[in-house]
Amino acid sequence: MTRPSPWEDAWNRAQPRLAAIRDTLNTSNSADYRVIRVGQLDSELLDQELAQLLQEPLNKALSMISTSLKARFAPELALLIQLTLYKLSIWNTGASYGAKLQDLRYTLPASQQGRRLAPSGLPRRTLLLHGTLTVILPYLHTKLRSYALSSAWPDAPSSDYRRKAWDILTSLESAYTLLTLSNFVAFLWNGRFRSIADRLLNMSLVPRRRFVKREVSYEFMNRQMVWHAFTEFLLFLLPLISARSIRRRMNRIASVISPSAVLSSLGVKHTPDAKTVAGKALQKKGKYWSLPQDQCAICAENASMNLNISEPTNAFTTLTQAVVEDSAPVSETEPPAYPIYTPYLTSCGDIYCYSCIAERLMQAVDAAEDERGWTCLRCSSEVTSAERYIVEMGSDVSGSDYEFSSDISGSASMGSYSESGWSDSSVS
After folding, report:
1. pTM for the model
2. CA distances in angstroms from 336 to 190, 221, 331, 393, listed in the order given
3. What are the start-end ranges of the E strands in 115-254?
4. Which value, to the nearest 10 degrees, does the dihedral of the CA atoms of residues 12, 17, 19, 20 take?
């Protein structure tokens, strides 16, 4: 018979001790729950934010119907939302939505477990009392306080019962605030009973799992910080970028890669047919080509888009004048509807008001979508500059008899305006 090895002998001698340790572990009580205070406080904040998030669209809907409905039924809406959340969370599952996110649930001592249980496994009577203390009593307090303020209870005489009721109400509020502070200090000390209602009913929030790992996920916060930094960077960068210059460059690139530009670069000449040439010739008339030469086409266009009836020239007067001109000829003695003030001669040969043509040329420079200028409203030509129009009158023409018309001969002098700026010149 062989002698056992030393390690087999040691294993056999350790068997009684291992069996005693197993028996001790099986008969010992389970480890206590690890109490996480910040998780309980975060769950309460999450529940409040969820209720506000659900109430906000309802308040907006009521305010669109009537502004008084929002202020009148706001407490009732809050009560309805709180009761619905309480039924779907604590009553059915034993934990609010915020507590579920923190992996917590409500528990009661074994001695308080009754016969009639809710779907969550907690006693129905305890949950009814808890819902009354946490949902219904705050609603009643809000309604009573708003009614007291609307009825001027604080301003009543000291001997009036309303003033006495108000003093009692304020005393109860102060006492409740003091109790809430004391309960919070006790909660920070032992981590149990987050609120006064929980302490009165002996309901405590405990982790759902026995062993809790304190793993805080910062994924949402990191994503939020990235988006915040990205938006701040865009707010800093966008004012430095000229959208017009980018649009102008894109248009230039598009014109370079257009089929006509590609054909011209390859030496292929594109000859338009007779119909195209005739169509372009017919299109060489502007929108206001028929307007008399002594009237400003830009003023007429501005009046056609003006809806302010208080001004003498607007869209309605323009329509009326068009109907009158179609029905009967305009008398020569009548003043022009859109007279030209400080006439300026454009590069295409038409005359406009100084303020009108200067504004349009400045807008064309600011737009800078292409290298062309502003399109004339009379001949559809490209206007790149404008000069002061001076009428040369003879000695037989008096200033009072002066009439501006298309047959007046004139020459540009003194000042000229173009897209590049002002230039001063004199007429010899």
Report:
1. 0.47
2. 92, 69, 10, 21
3. 204-207
4. 160
3-state class (DSSP) for residue 286 = coil
Residue 414 banded pLDDT, cuts 50, 70, 90: very low
User: Tokens for 97?
Assistant: 């939505």
Task: Quickly count: other Cβ atoms within 10 Å of residue 215's Cβ.
Answer: 5
**Tokens 């001949």 found at:** 379
What does the pLDDT look like over 384-410, one tens digit per residue?
888 998 876 654 444 444 444 433 333
Task: List the structure tokens of 372.
Answer: 């062309």
Name the residue among 103, 122, 124, 52 with its Cα closest to residue 82: 52
Tokens of 285: 């008339």
Separation of first and last alpha carbons in the chain: 142
Return the minimum-mean-pLDDT range out of 105-109, 222-226, 367-371: 367-371
Question: DSSP 3-state assignment of 356?
Answer: helix
CA–CA separation, 295 vs 302, rounded Å?
13
- Taking the C-alpha atoms of residue 78 and residue 10, their distance in angstroms, rounded to an integer, is 71
Record the tokens describing residue 370, joined without a space.
Answer: 């292409």
Q: Identify any residues that bridge with 374 across adjacent strands, giving them in sequence order.
A: 383
At 90, is the secondary structure helix, strand, or coil? helix
Phi and psi for 343 in degrees, rounded to 5?
-65, 140
